[in-house]
Each structure stands twice: as C-alpha cells, then as structure tokens.
Amino acid sequence: MTQHPRVVSNVPALRRAIDALRRGRATVALVPTMGALHKGHLALVRQARRRAKRVVVSIFVNPTQFAPNEDFGSYPRDLKQDLTALAEANVDLVWAPNVKTMYPDGFATRIVPEGPAKAGLEDAFRPHFFGGVATVVTKLLVQCSPDIAIFGEKDYQQLKVISRIATDLDLPVKIVGAPIVRETNGLAMSSRNAYLSEAQREVAASLHRVLKDCARRIAGKEHIARVLDECSADIESVGFTLDYLEARHADSLAKVESIKDGPIRLLVAARLGATRLIDNVAV
Q: Catalytic residue at 208?
C-alpha cells in the first residue's frame, strides 16, 4: 500500500516541513488546489515533479472567492481520496489548512488586483472573485515559499492575474501555466464537472468544438466580430446560457479586432443548467 504524503495544517509545521524539503538546496514546486482532484490536477503535479526536486500540493477551498449565491457549501470535497491520488503521484507534502488558519480572527488585509483582473471577462460576472483569489494565492506563495508554482491554463484569466501579482510584488517564484487537460470528448476537466449529468456532459463537450471552429475561422482571417457572433449563437443553440465569448490578446487580455492584434486567445464562460463552465483556446 502506498503511503500517504505528509499532511500539515498549521503554519509553523508547514515552515518546518518546507525547510526539511529544501535540505541540500532542493528546489520546491507548489501546486495550489481546492481539492476534489482529477486528472487535470495530477497533470499539474507531474509537471511540478519534472521541474523541481520536491512537490507540495495545497488543498484549501477558499471561501473568499465564492459569492453568497455560489457553491461554496456544496463544492466537492474528498480529502481521503485526494491523499490517495497524491500518494500515487509521489507528492512530498500536502498543505491543508482550515479556514481559521488562513483567515484568523482579526484578519484585515486583502489584495485588490487590477490589470488583467479588470479585463471585463470573469470579473464582469464574478466581481468578488479575483480579490479572493489574489489574497489566498499570495498567502499560499508566502507560506510555502516555492521556487515554482504551477497553475492550469483552464482558468486563463486567473493565471494572468497571478503572474501579474508575482511580478508586481517581486515574489521570488516562477509562475508556470500548464495546458488544459480534457476528457475524451474534449470537455475541459474541472471539479465542477461532477455536477453534470451524463446527457449534460455530451452537450458540454460542444463548447470546445465550437471554440476550436471559432479559432480556425479567425486564424483563416475571417472577421472576428462576425465569427464571435455566429459562434455565440451556436453555443446557445445547444442549450447553454452564454456569459461571454471573447477574443483577447493572449498576454494582456486586451480586446482585439483583427488577427494582426495577436497573439489571440479565445475565452468562453457559459452555463448549462446550474453548472457554469469556462474554457479557452489559442488562435
């Protein structure tokens, strides 16, 4: 039986454990997660293992990035199963604090990001979100002091926000984006996919198919605004409620009008029933 990685849940124990991992000048990679781990998370762990000698995974469902009407209470949680998966992935340490540890009584400091956090994408629909993400990720980076931190590209705007924070605050960590891991039908892997019925999973896969077609047409120099309008209609025609489908500069997230304004990233957010899905592809 594979032994579970060491789990720590308070900051003094974490710092002692990180110091021990660094003996012999070993490099440390951090993979921040909210648990409910799937193959996408484990791909991040594998990339971390390739880039560093030691791998730390954090598991913390962060309440400050959920609005009151969102799914904090029902968000999937299964620490036992997560630890089994991380043991098989040969993770060295799991940082699993509770809410009181991360936000103790009297906690009064927030990170308020701008730049890519104000691009009019996720922030337009979840105005609370990036403040919560920025604060918790900054804490995780300070607590774990990694050389490298790995984030999935599925949350593309989030990746750009975190990269900006690390640069602006002179944090001594390299932020690395990892490619999206997909199910066999093309659906981007997400913990929230657990909310989908089997029938909804098949419909959800059409989101990626439309995105790929949209990217192909834009790369072929079709008019971006027209392509976005037609692809938006395609997404809604299969049963989604569309929040946005946007073509943005892949680095700055600024709006683009032609292929000459690139590199371009297509980003989408849409709801299928009660489940909200996001995805993106490069053009």
A: no
